[in-house]
């Protein structure tokens, strides 16, 4: 990283980072998981400024915050998170695309041997939700394939309506051998999705008089909930193997019960 630090700093400044924002961002990347107090010590930036800068970096989606424990931690995001800056700055996309690609490549070299600490709980607001979907998908897929290879949960109509582009993208690159077993409500949106998905995607339409207001996925050691039926939208990701195992068993039992009632 030492030989590329100067170039990376220059690229980040071109992306709109201030000089202190660059120092804070790179320090978080270096330490992977760090408290604001520790960050103030290693950067020689006062704590009040650290809080202000970290809040802005979290808002941009290039730094994560661990809300799962008593102590607050700032977490290094994956290098690909820089692509989210472009999605939120569409007017400058053409001029900044090459810059962010260069910065991502350098960050990958810097971080290839680092172990990224993953927050147990993440709360994602509407303005960052779509970016989060694209950047987290590879990790969710990895976790699914390392458990039972099955994508479980309930998918409400609102998710299909709001994120059809992501669904099409996902089916263009999903891991071979993965199975999909989801509950859903019978809707026109689901019928449209069925036209471009795989035969490995099993959708069970639950006829019970139940109104679901959130999409819930169980993906390996992750449970992810999307609330899209009211505004603002948001997502909650929980990374906990035991909790996910229980949710997986619950959905399997429901699906088996529904199948048994139909046979």
Question: Could you provide a short overview of the structure?
Answer:
This protein folds into two domains: 5-111, Arc Repressor Mutant, subunit A; 121-262, Endonuclease, Chain A (2-Layer Sandwich). 51% of the residues lie in helices and 19% in strands. Helix 2 packs across helix 4.
Description:
- The protein is α+β, with helices and mostly antiparallel strands and 263 residues long.
- The chain has helices at residues 5-14, 19-31, 36-43, 47-60, 83-87, 93-111, 126-146, 157-162, 164-171, 188-194, 241-262; strands spanning 33-34, 63-66, 73-76, 121-125, 150-155, 179-184, 201-205, 215-219, 222-227, 234-239.
- It has 2 domains: 5-111, Arc Repressor Mutant, subunit A; 121-262, Endonuclease, Chain A.
- It is built from 11 helices and 10 strands.
- The strands form 2 sheets. It has a 7-stranded mixed beta sheet with strand order 4-10-9-8-5-6-7, with helices on both faces. The protein has a 3-stranded antiparallel beta sheet with strand order 1-3-2.
- Strand 2 (63-66) and strand 3 form a beta hairpin.
- The longest helix has 22 residues, at 241-262.
- It starts with a helix and ends with a helix.
- The mean pLDDT is 83.
